[in-house]
Amino acid sequence: MSTTPPPPSPSTAARRPSAGGELWRAVSGRVARAVGRAHQTWRRSLQVRVVTITLVASSLLVGGFAFLIADKITTILLDSARSDVRQRVTSGASYAAKQVSFYGQPQEAQLQETIDGTVNYLAGGDPQQTSGVVVAITADDYPNDIQTRTSPSANVQSLISPELRAAIADGKVASQIRTGRLTDKTTKYLVYGSPVPTRFGQIELYYLVPLARQDVTAADARATVVATGVALVILLGLLAALVTRLVVNPVRVAARTAQRLSAGLLDQRMVVNGEDDLALLAASFNQMATNLQRQILRLEEMSRLQRRFTSDVSHELRTPLTTVRMAADLIFAERDEFDPAVARSAELLQAELDRFEELLTDLLEISRFDAGFAMLDSEPTDLVPVVHRVVDRLAGLAERVGVPIELDLPGTPVIAEVDPRRVERVLRNLVGNAVEHGEARPVLITLGIDETAVAITVRDHGVGLKVGEEKLVFNRFWRADPSRARQTGGTGLGLSISLEDARLHGGWLEAWGAPGQGAQFRLTLPARAGDRLTTSPLRLVPADAALPFGGPRDGGPLAIGPGTGGALAIGPAPAGDGQRTEVRS
User: Fold this and answer.
1) Domain with 532 in it
2) Transmembrane residues, as ranges (predicted)?
3) How many domains does the chain have?
4) What does the pLDDT look like over 392-432, one tens digit per residue?
5) How far apart are the first and last CA of the chain?
6) What is the 8-class DSSP label of residue 584?
7) Residues 169 and 198 placed together within one structural domain of the fold
8) Which residues, including other chains, have CB under 8 Å from residue 512's CB and lie 6 or more apart?
9) If I label 401, which of 51, 316, 523, 535 is the partner at 20 to 30 A Cα–Cα?
10) Is residue 27, in this structure, part of any structural domain at all?
11) What is the pTM for the complete model shown?
């Protein structure tokens, strides 16, 4: 037994797409893609823009001239036809007036025959019997006595309008153009009428001249003008394309050469042909490229020598520094036996040797970064103990300057694939810098993690950063206040090395600060080595920061840090969920 399937429910039928809707979406999608490609081509190709503008402008100009010329030709042909017909109407009216001048009454028997003979004579006066000209004599004032006669025989009443009849009745010679059917096809006629005076009143003489020949001539003229205009526009387009190509090609070559130069191929040059302006451009470009290559090579050599000098000096200073360190340690150990002045000198010597040794270590690290020899030794690391080690190491300094250190750490391990030695050095620099500028106020260290990244923020409540200082905070040997007494004896390279360590991990090191509100540094690292960062688990702008003028949109604090490829990112600090929204430069 067969069963009939149930009909689809209204909701199912409503969800089922119609064929017309699918076709419309397909067509609209193709049109949108075609428009997009055309717009992209328009924006990217100077030659396309020049040729298109030339074609449009020339088409409008040639079209206007073609319209004027065609209209003038039509007017000339029509005026010629009017002049010829007017002469024939004038002479025909004079002849007809002489023929009917002998009759004093419209009822006379011979009058109709005379009118017939006059019409036949005037029609036979046409040298071209096949021209299609129709001659007609009517008497609207005497319709019962005088019948309308035409030669050749035709019904002309539909081609003679009441307005024309009224003008002829007033004794005027008038004309109009009418379209009608006197033969087997519809034709445009020039209808000319003239009054014929008689002794008993007035009759009317009409000439109906076909304008087929004039129309054909005007159509041929318009076609010729249009064809000539189209050919001229095409030639202008080809000429514009050729001229533009001659100009654009050297520019394209210059652009490609400049791209190769920017990619590091400093030996690329343009071919110089001739002595015109383009050749002068190519020669000037080549000279500029040569000067740039020479200058870049000189700067690279100077940079290489500088890095080598720094590295060599740092290495060479190790041996005398070791000797001096041994002597200084011996003197420092026996300082209690010296008089107070010499003992104080021994303490100063020991402190400066410590700073000098730290400076040499930082210089060697910077030289490795500059030479590209820095290597990352990543391993799964719990960052919570790393933070504790840094805090324990700086606890004495924080206690001495009266800056409490507060921790906001997760209760579970925070595992990330990082180089623990470099991360610990970054945190040591950030926390030490915060303690140095903490102004006896708490320093807060926060650790956060999400699925792709880990982040550590170090917040102090010191004097903060002035306007413009956010661009200098990661520069080498830069200090916010040179007159300020240091507590840590730093080298001025800590933040620079920290920035390079963050870049080496593929992470971000960013800073926020505002006068009187302190500063906050945020280190963001990928949870898995080699991943690309897109967001940070922690906000860069602290939640307790007061944003002046309504926030960053109206000139609030700025955030800076490494952007894409290691470039410095400068812009308004994000106030949302911690995503990187700062402007990159």
Assistant:
1) 375-545
2) 50-70, 223-243
3) 3
4) 988 888 888 899 999 999 989 999 999 888 898 899 889 98
5) 77
6) B
7) yes
8) 470, 519, 520, 521, 522, 540, 541, 542, 545, 557, 558, 559, 573
9) 523
10) no
11) 0.45
